[in-house]
Protein backbone atom coordinates (compact mmCIF):
# COMPACT_ATOMS: atom_id res chain seq x y z
CA UNK A 1 0.00 0.00 0.00
CA UNK A 2 1.54 3.31 -1.08
CA UNK A 3 0.77 6.56 0.70
CA UNK A 4 0.74 9.24 -1.96
CA UNK A 5 -0.57 12.79 -1.85
CA UNK A 6 -4.14 12.85 -3.06
CA UNK A 7 -4.62 14.42 -6.46
CA UNK A 8 -6.72 17.62 -6.60
CA UNK A 9 -9.24 15.71 -8.72
CA UNK A 10 -9.57 12.96 -6.11
CA UNK A 11 -10.07 15.55 -3.35
CA UNK A 12 -12.75 17.38 -5.35
CA UNK A 13 -14.52 14.09 -6.10
CA UNK A 14 -14.62 13.10 -2.41
CA UNK A 15 -15.72 16.57 -1.21
CA UNK A 16 -18.51 16.69 -3.80
CA UNK A 17 -19.79 13.20 -3.12
CA UNK A 18 -19.77 13.74 0.66
CA UNK A 19 -21.55 17.11 0.30
CA UNK A 20 -24.22 15.67 -2.00
CA UNK A 21 -24.90 12.59 0.15
CA UNK A 22 -24.60 14.00 3.68
CA UNK A 23 -24.36 17.83 3.42
CA UNK A 24 -21.06 17.62 5.30
CA UNK A 25 -18.78 20.41 4.09
CA UNK A 26 -15.26 18.98 4.01
CA UNK A 27 -12.39 21.38 3.71
CA UNK A 28 -10.42 20.47 0.60
CA UNK A 29 -7.34 21.86 2.39
CA UNK A 30 -7.57 18.98 4.87
CA UNK A 31 -6.50 16.36 2.36
CA UNK A 32 -4.59 14.55 5.15
CA UNK A 33 -7.96 13.96 6.86
CA UNK A 34 -9.43 12.45 3.70
CA UNK A 35 -6.32 10.30 3.27
CA UNK A 36 -6.40 9.12 6.91
CA UNK A 37 -10.11 8.26 6.83
CA UNK A 38 -10.06 6.49 3.46
CA UNK A 39 -6.80 4.56 3.77
CA UNK A 40 -8.28 1.70 5.86
CA UNK A 41 -11.18 1.41 3.41
CA UNK A 42 -8.80 1.34 0.45
CA UNK A 43 -6.84 -1.45 2.14
CA UNK A 44 -9.95 -3.47 3.01
CA UNK A 45 -11.10 -3.29 -0.60
CA UNK A 46 -7.76 -4.37 -2.04
CA UNK A 47 -6.63 -1.07 -3.60
CA UNK A 48 -2.94 -0.19 -3.75
CA UNK A 49 -3.45 3.44 -2.67
CA UNK A 50 -6.14 5.88 -1.59
CA UNK A 51 -5.93 7.61 -4.98
CA UNK A 52 -6.62 4.29 -6.68
CA UNK A 53 -9.49 3.60 -4.31
CA UNK A 54 -11.08 6.97 -5.10
CA UNK A 55 -10.57 6.33 -8.81
CA UNK A 56 -12.18 2.89 -8.33
CA UNK A 57 -15.24 4.43 -6.64
CA UNK A 58 -15.47 6.94 -9.49
CA UNK A 59 -15.36 4.36 -12.24
CA UNK A 60 -17.27 1.47 -10.68
CA UNK A 61 -20.28 3.46 -9.48
CA UNK A 62 -21.02 0.81 -6.83
CA UNK A 63 -23.60 2.14 -4.32
CA UNK A 64 -22.14 0.05 -1.48
CA UNK A 65 -18.63 1.40 -2.00
CA UNK A 66 -19.95 4.96 -2.31
CA UNK A 67 -21.91 4.54 0.93
CA UNK A 68 -18.79 3.30 2.70
CA UNK A 69 -16.77 6.25 1.40
CA UNK A 70 -19.34 8.77 2.69
CA UNK A 71 -19.67 7.00 6.05
CA UNK A 72 -15.90 6.90 6.45
CA UNK A 73 -15.83 10.68 6.13
CA UNK A 74 -18.32 11.27 8.98
CA UNK A 75 -17.01 12.23 12.41
CA UNK A 76 -18.54 9.87 14.97
CA UNK A 77 -17.01 11.32 18.12
CA UNK A 78 -19.36 10.83 21.09
CA UNK A 79 -19.37 9.75 24.73
CA UNK A 80 -21.68 8.90 27.61
CA UNK A 81 -23.21 11.97 29.30
CA UNK A 82 -21.31 14.21 26.87
CA UNK A 83 -21.03 17.80 28.21
CA UNK A 84 -22.87 16.75 31.45
CA UNK A 85 -25.06 19.88 31.74
CA UNK A 86 -27.82 18.84 29.29
CA UNK A 87 -28.33 15.69 31.35
CA UNK A 88 -28.48 17.70 34.59
CA UNK A 89 -31.14 19.96 33.03
CA UNK A 90 -33.01 16.87 31.88
CA UNK A 91 -33.01 15.38 35.39
CA UNK A 92 -33.71 18.52 37.40
CA UNK A 93 -36.07 20.48 35.16
CA UNK A 94 -37.14 19.05 31.84
CA UNK A 95 -38.22 15.52 32.74
CA UNK A 96 -40.06 16.56 35.94
CA UNK A 97 -41.98 19.11 33.82
CA UNK A 98 -42.64 16.58 31.06
CA UNK A 99 -43.94 14.08 33.64
CA UNK A 100 -46.62 16.62 34.60
CA UNK A 101 -47.40 17.77 31.06
CA UNK A 102 -47.74 14.25 29.65
CA UNK A 103 -49.41 12.71 32.72
CA UNK A 104 -52.73 12.21 30.91
CA UNK A 105 -51.23 10.44 27.89
CA UNK A 106 -48.41 8.71 29.75
CA UNK A 107 -46.27 8.78 26.61
CA UNK A 108 -42.93 10.37 25.90
CA UNK A 109 -40.85 10.40 22.72
CA UNK A 110 -37.16 11.16 22.90
CA UNK A 111 -34.98 11.42 19.79
CA UNK A 112 -31.24 11.38 19.44
CA UNK A 113 -30.78 12.59 15.86
CA UNK A 114 -27.24 11.89 14.62
CA UNK A 115 -26.81 9.42 17.50
CA UNK A 116 -23.51 7.91 16.35
CA UNK A 117 -22.74 4.73 18.35
CA UNK A 118 -25.61 5.30 20.80
CA UNK A 119 -23.97 6.65 23.96
CA UNK A 120 -26.25 9.74 23.96
CA UNK A 121 -29.49 7.73 23.83
CA UNK A 122 -28.27 5.12 26.32
CA UNK A 123 -27.28 7.94 28.70
CA UNK A 124 -30.88 9.20 28.63
CA UNK A 125 -32.24 5.65 29.06
CA UNK A 126 -30.07 5.11 32.17
CA UNK A 127 -30.99 8.53 33.57
CA UNK A 128 -34.69 7.69 33.28
CA UNK A 129 -34.14 4.29 34.87
CA UNK A 130 -32.21 5.86 37.75
CA UNK A 131 -34.40 8.86 38.54
CA UNK A 132 -37.88 8.44 37.04
CA UNK A 133 -39.27 5.09 38.16
CA UNK A 134 -42.77 6.58 37.62
CA UNK A 135 -42.07 6.36 33.87
CA UNK A 136 -41.76 2.56 34.04
CA UNK A 137 -45.46 2.23 33.27
CA UNK A 138 -45.45 4.89 30.53
CA UNK A 139 -44.90 4.47 26.82
CA UNK A 140 -41.42 5.89 26.59
CA UNK A 141 -39.80 5.66 23.15
CA UNK A 142 -36.13 6.39 22.81
CA UNK A 143 -35.20 6.65 19.15
CA UNK A 144 -31.68 7.02 17.78
CA UNK A 145 -31.04 7.84 14.12
CA UNK A 146 -27.97 8.44 12.03
CA UNK A 147 -26.85 8.50 8.42
CA UNK A 148 -24.20 5.86 8.98
CA UNK A 149 -25.20 2.19 8.96
CA UNK A 150 -21.86 1.34 10.49
CA UNK A 151 -22.45 3.34 13.69
CA UNK A 152 -26.10 2.29 13.85
CA UNK A 153 -25.19 -1.39 13.95
CA UNK A 154 -22.75 -0.65 16.78
CA UNK A 155 -25.45 1.33 18.62
CA UNK A 156 -27.95 -1.51 18.25
CA UNK A 157 -25.44 -4.05 19.55
CA UNK A 158 -24.90 -1.93 22.68
CA UNK A 159 -21.35 -3.22 23.16
CA UNK A 160 -18.69 -0.76 24.23
CA UNK A 161 -14.94 -0.98 24.70
CA UNK A 162 -13.19 -0.22 27.99
CA UNK A 163 -12.06 3.13 26.55
CA UNK A 164 -15.63 4.04 25.59
CA UNK A 165 -17.09 3.22 29.02
CA UNK A 166 -14.24 5.12 30.68
CA UNK A 167 -15.45 8.27 28.93
CA UNK A 168 -18.22 9.96 30.92
CA UNK A 169 -19.93 6.90 32.39
CA UNK A 170 -19.93 6.93 36.23
CA UNK A 171 -18.57 3.63 37.62
CA UNK A 172 -21.78 2.78 39.57
CA UNK A 173 -23.81 3.01 36.34
CA UNK A 174 -21.30 0.82 34.52
CA UNK A 175 -21.57 -1.86 37.18
CA UNK A 176 -25.34 -1.61 37.38
CA UNK A 177 -26.33 -1.50 33.72
CA UNK A 178 -23.53 -3.32 31.84
CA UNK A 179 -22.20 -6.85 31.76
CA UNK A 180 -18.58 -7.56 31.07
CA UNK A 181 -18.00 -9.79 28.05
CA UNK A 182 -14.27 -10.36 27.65
CA UNK A 183 -12.81 -7.06 26.44
CA UNK A 184 -16.19 -5.35 25.97
CA UNK A 185 -19.12 -4.17 28.06
CA UNK A 186 -22.63 -5.15 26.98
CA UNK A 187 -25.48 -2.85 27.99
CA UNK A 188 -28.25 -4.82 29.74
CA UNK A 189 -31.57 -5.63 28.02
CA UNK A 190 -33.50 -3.56 30.58
CA UNK A 191 -31.85 -0.42 29.10
CA UNK A 192 -31.66 -1.57 25.50
CA UNK A 193 -35.24 -2.81 25.26
CA UNK A 194 -36.98 0.55 24.93
CA UNK A 195 -34.44 2.00 22.53
CA UNK A 196 -34.46 1.65 18.76
CA UNK A 197 -31.94 2.74 16.15
CA UNK A 198 -32.94 3.56 12.55
CA UNK A 199 -31.27 5.08 9.54
CA UNK A 200 -32.25 8.69 8.87
CA UNK A 201 -30.32 11.08 6.68
CA UNK A 202 -31.17 14.57 7.93
CA UNK A 203 -30.97 16.03 4.41
CA UNK A 204 -33.16 13.42 2.75
CA UNK A 205 -36.86 12.69 3.08
CA UNK A 206 -37.51 11.59 6.67
CA UNK A 207 -39.41 8.39 7.45
CA UNK A 208 -42.59 8.93 9.49
CA UNK A 209 -41.66 9.93 13.03
CA UNK A 210 -43.89 10.46 16.06
CA UNK A 211 -44.14 13.95 17.62
CA UNK A 212 -40.98 14.34 19.68
CA UNK A 213 -40.90 15.75 23.22
CA UNK A 214 -37.13 15.90 23.61
CA UNK A 215 -34.74 16.18 20.68
CA UNK A 216 -30.97 15.84 20.86
CA UNK A 217 -29.46 17.24 17.66
CA UNK A 218 -25.97 17.72 18.98
CA UNK A 219 -22.66 18.13 17.23
CA UNK A 220 -23.92 17.59 13.71
CA UNK A 221 -25.16 21.00 12.49
CA UNK A 222 -21.57 22.25 12.75
CA UNK A 223 -20.71 20.25 9.62
CA UNK A 224 -23.40 21.88 7.47
CA UNK A 225 -23.84 25.12 5.52
CA UNK A 226 -26.18 27.81 7.00
CA UNK A 227 -28.89 26.92 4.44
CA UNK A 228 -28.76 23.23 5.35
CA UNK A 229 -28.88 24.08 9.08
CA UNK A 230 -31.98 26.24 8.44
CA UNK A 231 -33.72 23.50 6.48
CA UNK A 232 -33.00 20.85 9.14
CA UNK A 233 -34.17 23.12 11.98
CA UNK A 234 -37.38 23.79 10.01
CA UNK A 235 -38.03 20.06 9.73
CA UNK A 236 -37.13 19.44 13.38
CA UNK A 237 -39.54 22.08 14.62
CA UNK A 238 -42.36 20.54 12.57
CA UNK A 239 -42.14 17.28 14.50
CA UNK A 240 -41.66 18.84 17.95
CA UNK A 241 -44.67 18.51 20.27
CA UNK A 242 -45.94 21.57 22.18
CA UNK A 243 -43.49 22.30 25.05
CA UNK A 244 -40.83 20.10 23.42
CA UNK A 245 -37.17 20.92 23.98
CA UNK A 246 -34.26 20.81 21.58
CA UNK A 247 -30.64 20.32 22.62
CA UNK A 248 -27.88 21.42 20.27
CA UNK A 249 -24.13 20.95 20.69
CA UNK A 250 -22.11 23.48 22.70
CA UNK A 251 -20.86 25.15 19.50
CA UNK A 252 -24.30 25.25 17.85
CA UNK A 253 -27.28 27.60 18.05
CA UNK A 254 -30.57 28.42 16.33
CA UNK A 255 -29.76 32.12 16.65
CA UNK A 256 -29.41 33.74 13.24
CA UNK A 257 -30.96 30.68 11.61
CA UNK A 258 -34.50 30.19 12.86
CA UNK A 259 -36.51 32.76 14.83
CA UNK A 260 -39.18 30.25 15.91
CA UNK A 261 -36.95 29.00 18.72
CA UNK A 262 -36.22 30.66 22.03
CA UNK A 263 -33.07 29.99 23.97
CA UNK A 264 -33.52 28.76 27.56
CA UNK A 265 -30.74 28.45 30.13
CA UNK A 266 -31.08 25.98 33.03
CA UNK A 267 -28.43 24.27 35.21
CA UNK A 268 -25.63 25.78 33.08
CA UNK A 269 -27.23 24.11 30.08
CA UNK A 270 -28.77 25.77 27.06
CA UNK A 271 -31.72 24.30 25.21
CA UNK A 272 -34.33 25.60 22.79
CA UNK A 273 -38.11 25.72 22.85
CA UNK A 274 -40.62 26.82 20.27
CA UNK A 275 -41.81 30.36 21.01
C1 LIG B 1 -20.01 14.00 16.13
S1 LIG B 1 -21.29 12.78 15.99
C2 LIG B 1 -22.43 13.36 17.22
C3 LIG B 1 -22.93 12.24 18.10
C4 LIG B 1 -23.81 12.68 19.26
N1 LIG B 1 -24.96 13.41 18.81
C5 LIG B 1 -23.01 13.53 20.24
O1 LIG B 1 -23.17 14.74 20.29
O2 LIG B 1 -22.21 12.96 20.98
C6 LIG B 1 -22.05 13.31 14.46
C7 LIG B 1 -22.92 12.22 13.81
O3 LIG B 1 -23.68 12.85 12.77
C8 LIG B 1 -23.89 11.90 11.75
N2 LIG B 1 -24.28 12.61 10.52
C9 LIG B 1 -23.51 13.36 9.71
N3 LIG B 1 -24.23 13.82 8.67
C10 LIG B 1 -25.49 13.36 8.84
C11 LIG B 1 -26.69 13.47 8.09
N4 LIG B 1 -26.75 14.17 6.96
N5 LIG B 1 -27.79 12.86 8.56
C12 LIG B 1 -27.75 12.13 9.71
N6 LIG B 1 -26.65 11.98 10.45
C13 LIG B 1 -25.52 12.58 10.02
C14 LIG B 1 -22.55 11.17 11.66
O4 LIG B 1 -22.68 9.92 11.05
C15 LIG B 1 -22.13 11.11 13.13
O5 LIG B 1 -22.47 9.86 13.71
Topology:
Layout (H helix, E strand, L loop, with lengths): L7 H15 L8 H14 L5 H11 L2 H10 L12 H17 L5 E7 L5 H13 L7 E8 L2 H9 L1 E3 H5 L4 H7 E4 L2 E4 L1 H4 L2 E5 L12 E6 L8 H14 E9 L12 E6 L2 E6 L1
Helix pairs in contact: 2-3
The protein binds S-adenosylmethionine.
The site of S-adenosylmethionine has 24 residues, from loops.
Question: How does this structure look, described?
Answer:
There is one protein chain. The chain is of the alpha/beta class and 275 residues long. It has 2 domains: 8-72, Orthogonal Bundle (Chemotaxis Receptor Methyltransferase Cher, domain 1), CATH 1.10.155; 85-274, 3-Layer(aba) Sandwich (Rossmann fold). Helices cover 43% and strands 21% of the residues. The strands form 2 sheets. A 7-stranded mixed sheet has the order 6-2-1-7-8-10-9. Helix 2 packs across helix 3 (50-60). The chain starts with 7 loop residues before the first helix and ends with a strand. The model has no long low-confidence stretch (mean pLDDT 95). S-adenosylmethionine (SAM) binds next to loops.
Amino acid sequence: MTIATLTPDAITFVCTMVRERSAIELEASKSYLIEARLLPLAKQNGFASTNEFIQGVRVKRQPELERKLVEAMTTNETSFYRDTHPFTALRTTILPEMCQLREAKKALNIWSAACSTGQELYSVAMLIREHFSNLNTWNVHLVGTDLSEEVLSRARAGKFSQIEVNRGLPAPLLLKYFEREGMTWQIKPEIRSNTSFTKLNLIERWPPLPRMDIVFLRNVLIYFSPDTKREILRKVRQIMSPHAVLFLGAAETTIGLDTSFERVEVSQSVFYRLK
